[in-house]
Amino acid sequence: MNHAVARAVTHALIFAAVTPAFAQTAPDSSARGAPAIALDEIVVTAQKRETNLQDTPISVSVLSADSLADRHAISLASLADGSVPSLRVAPFATRSSALNIGIRGIGASGDANQPARDAGVGVYVDGVFLGRAQGLGTALYDVERIEVLKGPQGTLFGRNTEGGAISIVTKAPTGEFRLDTKLDISSFDGVGTAVHLDLPKVSDFSFKIDGLLTKRDGTTDNPMRGEGDFNSYDKRGVRVTGLWQPSERFAATYAYDNAYDATTPYHAQLLRAGPFASALQRAGASETRRSASILGGPQEDNIGRTSGHLLALQWTLTDAMELKSISSYRDLEQGQFDQGFIDAISTFSPNGTFGRYSLAQVSQYQYSEELQLIGHTDQVQYVAGAFYYRESAGDNAQTPLTNLWDATGTAYTINPANAPLNLDRVTVDRASRAWTNSLGMFGQATWTPASLQRLHLTAGGRYTKDDKRGKLHTLNGTASALAFDDSWSRFDPMVNVAYDLGEAAMAYAKWSTGFKAGGANSRSLTYRAFDPEEVTAIELGLKSQFWDNRARLNVALFDSTIKGKQMDFFFPFTVGGSPRTVSDTTNATTDGESRGAEVEFSIVPVSNLTVSLNYTLTKIDALKAPNPYVTGNPLATVLPLYAPKNAGSAAIDYRLPLGTSTLKFHVDGNWSDGYYTSEIEQTETDPSFVVNARIALADLPLNSTGTTVEFALWSRNLLDEQHLFYKSNSATLGTYGIFNDPRTYGIEARVPF
Q: Rounded to whole angstroms, how far apart are CA atoms 651 and 493?
């Protein structure tokens, strides 16, 4: 650890030492008869049990239901604006149907569209792991909170959490009647509605139904008549939850969800034309956001369908011990119709074909079972358990050329060879399927000595055995016998030492490991297996709350070593005049390091006003791996992906009482340095600054029965800021990239009964 980090640790510990004294001597407003002014308590389940955020000795950021509503966040993709600075969420290339997710510059992949590869940040919904990048963009149901756990979570959450984990917790049935309805109308012909119905308890049964629909037209026009515009979405879903609680010691929860997610790809805009561009492309290239594509082509919806069953059982065995079981089965189908790069990668030849339509079908099913034994004694809190995961996932790819140039490059028509498009007649370029079986056993215990109750010593570990095999049925349009069959086992330990510096401050030191599973690259010409990628991390932290709980300061310093990073190398070529891209994945031969600091500060300076400021500094090394496409396999350097050096967010919330109603103001600003998004061509993205805002009039009486209504005006990217979150620079194609969404705004009405 360098001297700058050491100095920061010293300053943090000095601050922690004086914080309790300040908190104890500060006047108590409630004792003076004034109304209590304090930050809300935040509950998390980062340690498989409910704990106060300030008593949990790891770095966790939490987005509450109100925070998500203030930002008009409809899915995980909405967090791409940087509301959690250390978290990066981005689509895979132009495809919002598959999300790349990284934390602290770790976990994201350059290619999130392959069935034999895994992500390095685990996403969980009510304790159920979601195995694919596809499906993560579906609309959120009635969410209670989203927890972002930073750093390796290999002990309690297991495989594919080397960068961290995202835990989405939905609202459970209450057993009391509640009907919450919402209607939203927004720009780009957007409309959204949601219904959350809690039914009264009948005998020992409670039920809850959540239904939602949110849709919007594209933000970039497609000039081909009758075809879909770019960057549209139509998200729908229903979730039914039942709770059976025959006694205080047993509860069974069953949930079924079914979602439909239709999107069109983002538009990759041509910024500066390359030497092989047409006259149309040269005339239309622009370094500011265009409202329409230069070239048009066929564009169908990318339709994703996900469904799942959850059965969660909870037994209270004794007053000090409980047993939990989380069983789940999930299905996924994702179609891909991607013409988003039509401006960017189309090259001109007289009367030649262009318009590479990237088509793919991804299917997956998964089954998982987790058992947890949670208990405590006078001095020890513990959790032990086992986890089993089984998955089958497959994909295919087709790339027909849909358009035809004229002789001069000033006009084009539909390619008659693919009009109308018949997928049965289009060559399948590649097809593969992979199967995974994973078994894990874990345990963790925290000891608080009776003689020193300020000290908390935690140790844990997890053993994981992965078996993975795959078949590459089709390669470059011909049958293939390529296959792999491999297995890996490992142990991930964790040690945590926490010390209470007072009633409202704690310092901790944590050492942990995590990994991303091994696999194979289905774009490869060899389909050989690569090994897991692993991270070992040290985290030093301070959690403090002071000024009568009106201020909260949490600081974390981290130093992570990345070993065996899975790195992609690409090689472009053509087959029958159609461009192809093959890639291979190898494990880096050198270690990398991700180190930095996170600061989260919230304060209530006066009644009804809350100010929040979050900042993350990340410094991550480049890595070297052998390049399989160069004679002799020399070491090549690849810069880290999704790792801005500086990122931050700030928010102001103010509530103005108006009789029985309340006027609520929210504004947040999110900024980030540029970063790299692709290993194929490493060009840094733009820095960004995105502002979101919302004004709501809540608790407005609707009738004499006590029913109220809430009206709100909201805007995402209020200042209509422009930045490229994906950028590529090619000597032949030119420079192109993907802009963030333009300003969107809407009006919302909500009626809770």
A: 37
Burial of 659 from C-beta contacts in 10 A (0-12 / 13-18 / 19+): exposed
Q: What is the rounded distance in angstroms from the CA atom of residue 232 to the CA atom of residue 228?
A: 8
Tens of pLDDT, residue by residue over 146-197, are 999 999 999 999 999 999 999 999 999 999 999 999 999 999 999 999 999 9
Grade residue 12 by pLDDT with cuts at 50, 70 and 90. Answer: very low
pLDDT of the residue at 411:
96
Beta-bridged to residue 324, according to DSSP, are: 314, 372
Given this model, what pLDDT does residue 29 score?
38
**CB contact set of 522 (below 8 Å; sequence gap of 6+):** 114, 115, 116, 395, 430, 432, 434, 470, 472
Range of the domain at 301: 3-752
| Distant-in-sequence, close-in-space partners of 451: CB < 8 Å, separation ≥ 6 | none
Contacts of 633 (CB under 8 A, 6+ apart): 626, 627
Q: Tens of pLDDT along 721-734?
A: 999 999 999 888 89
Calpha distance 296→649 (Å, rounded): 37
Strand 121-125 relative to strand 164-170, pairing: parallel
| CA angle, 165 then 171 then 172, to 5° | 115
Q: Which residues contact 654 (CB under 8 A, 6 or more apart)?
A: 608, 609, 610, 664, 665
| Kind of pairing between the strands at 143-150 and 164-170 | antiparallel
Under 8 Å CB-to-CB from 234, ≥6 apart: which residues? 215, 216, 260, 261, 262, 263, 301
Residue 2 CB-density burial (10 A; 0-12 exposed, 13-18 middle, 19+ buried)? exposed
Number of Cβ within 10 Å of residue 612's Cβ equals 17
For the stretch 319-352, pLDDT in tens is 999 999 999 999 999 999 999 999 999 999 999 9
**Which strand (E) or helix (H) includes residue 343?**
helix 342-345
Give me 371's structure tokens.
């058992």
DSSP one-letter string for 91-141: EETTEEEEEEEEETTBS--S----TT---SEEEEETTEEE--SBTTTSPP-
Q: Cα 366 to chain center, whole Å?
A: 19
Give the angle subtended at the CA of 615 by the CAs of 614 and 619, to the nearest 5°. Answer: 155
| Rg of the Cα atoms in the chain | 26
Average pLDDT of 694-709? 90
Structural domains of the chain, count: 1
Could you tell me the sign of the dihedral formed by the alpha carbons of 118, 123, 128, 134, in that order? Answer: negative
Q: Residue 189 carries which DSSP code? A: T
pTM over 0.85: yes
Give the CATH number of the domain where residue 79 resides.
Answer: 2.40.170.20
Report the candidate in 88, 85, 63 with the shortest Cα–Cα distance to residue 140.
63
Across the range 33-62, mean pLDDT stands at 88
Cis upstream peptide for 265 (omega within 30°): no
d(CA 131, CA 117): 10
Phi, psi of 11 (to 5 degrees): -65, -40
Confidence at residue 489, expressed as pLDDT on a 0 to 100 scale: 98
Distance separating alpha carbons of residues 747 and 708, to the nearest angstrom:
17
Handedness of CA 496, 501, 504, 507 (dihedral sign): negative
pLDDT at 572: 67
**Dist CA 56 CA 63 (whole Å):** 16
Note whether 233 and 61 are within 8 A (CB): no
